[in-house]
Design a protein that fits this description.
heterodimer; A: 300 residues; alpha/beta; Rossmann fold; 9 strands
């Protein structure tokens, strides 16, 4: 399996076997010291992020490498109108691998098309955030010991939430069932359902979280008020997708969340053993360490 | 039977285009030659009740160029004419990608903001649909 110099723009860039190889590499990546010494990771963040950027930077530091980049385009030539292609071609002169976050759908592919160093998509608009999916899958694998034969509940904003679509896509590589819970306004779009139908994946749709508790994994996402045309409608449904202390006691599912959380998971749940959302962040660093090492070709 | 469209001595004939789709095919082929072009629209057909036909005089397009019309004319047949004789005949086949067909329908797609990019669509043969190669949004 050869990962050297490849891009990771979309989950489809890796086969199921390759995804599993990333996970196997992650299992022992912390034992390998300074394998990226002398290598430079560039983090180009055209929009805000806490976890993704810091997680990638932490991963590179832990591998012994260095990090450069920007987090505010106001201080760069992007402000002067520089294209994504030209920014990529410039930054590749300074670095060995690039992580890009951009507000436009499909931006990571452009940078990948115009540069020779590996490009990792750190989130492009509402299109893809493939390393989030990798870390979500790795979390399930580590916490439950398997990725197949599971019942997965995904709750919250299923219309605009790219993590929900990507996770469903990633887990549909295995024999899993899904329950999707969301307000009518934010239900899973037809194109996402079509992808599941094409693979004969079983799924149900619910409107309330309380109908989604009998699952192996409960993946919560944030609902944003501004997604609703009618604020009264938001007020009416907002509590239907909140994991309260009471609902939390009724489920033994592994509880996950890509974070940031606003109010969709009660703080009392944080102490429960099945609340995995902070451990999820740690797994994220591990998976990204494995991914960076594989794309740089310092491990095979 | 009266001949409806003049024969061409050399060039490309595209037959079995669905009725009313001949202009769309020209669009798709980015046809802007100054040579003569004959178009027959709503011609009776045994195979498809009625059809359109295009005859492009002195124009020789590659199979790759012509194949992109398969998305709107899936059973079109193409004849290459030289000295009034058919020297090559083939049915169009859906390619894996189609360049420069139509702008991506997703206003947030990067192809609509980065001016130097040409629209590029992957052909999903299972669903007979076009998906933007950048944002993966379905066009048809």
């Amino acid at each position: 399996m050869n990962f050297r110099n490849r891009n990771f723009v979309s989950l489809h860039d890796f086969s199921k076997e390759e995804i599993e190889h990333v996970f196997k590499t992650a299992d022992s990546i912390h034992e390998k010291k300074d394998i990226c010494a002398g290598k430079i990771l560039a983090t180009l963040f055209y929009e805000p992020s806490t976890r993704t950027r810091l997680s990638f930077e932490s991963a590179m530091h832990r591998l012994g490498g260095n990090v450069i980049g920007f987090t505010d385009i106001a201080t760069t030539s992007v402000k002067k109108g520089e294209t994504i292609a030209d920014t990529g071609r410039s930054v590749e002169c300074y670095s060995d691998i690039i992580v890009l976050r951009h507000p436009d759908d499909g931006a990571a592919k452009i940078m990948a098309d115009y540069t020779k160093v590996p490009i990792i998509n750190g989130g492009d608009g509402s299109h893809q955030h493939p390393t989030q999916t990798l870390l979500d899958m790795y979390t399930i694998r580590q916490e439950l010991g398997k990725l197949k034969g599971l019942k997965i509940g995904i709750c919250g904003d299923l219309k605009y939430g790219r993590t929900a679509h990507s996770l469903a896509e990633g887990l549909s590589l295995y024999n899993n069932e899904f329950i999707f819970a969301s307000p009518e306004e934010l239900k899973l779009p037809d194109y996402a359902k079509r992808k599941l139908d094409e693979k004969n994946i079983k799924y149900e749709e619910k409107r309330e979280l309380k109908d989604t508790l009998d699952v192996d994994v409960l993946y919560m996402t944030r609902i944003q008020k501004e997604r609703f045309h009618d604020p009264i409608e938001y007020e009416r449904v907002k509590n239907n997708t909140i994991l309260t202390k009471e609902l939390g006691q009724k489920t033994n599912a592994l509880i996950m969340h890509p974070l940031p959380r606003v109010n969709e998971i009660a703080y009392e749940i944080d102490e429960k053993q099945n609340a995995a959302y902070f451990r999820q962040m740690k797994y994220g660093v591990t998976v990204r360490m494995a991914l960076i090492s594989l794309l740089l070709g310092v491990v095979e | 039977m009266m001949r409806m469209v003049e024969n061409i001595k050399q060039g490309t004939v595209i037959d079995h285009i669905p009725s009313g789709k001949a202009l769309d095919c020209l669009d798709l082929l980015c046809y802007n030659n100054k040579t003569r072009l004959f178009m027959a629209v709503n011609v009776p057909s045994n195979k498809m009740i009625s059809k359109d036909i295009l005859k492009l005089e002195n124009v020789f397009l590659s199979e790759d160029e012509i194949n992109k019309i398969a998305i709107i004319a899936p059973i079109a047949t193409v004849s290459i004419i030289e000295n009034e004789k058919i020297v090559k005949k083939f049915k169009v086949e859906l390619p894996n990608q189609i360049k420069n067909f139509q702008k991506c329908v997703n206003p947030k797609c990067v192809t609509n903001t980065e001016h130097y990019l040409q629209p590029l669509h992957n052909v999903n043969k299972k669903r007979n649909a076009l998906e933007c190669a950048y944002c993966e949004r379905t066009l048809h």
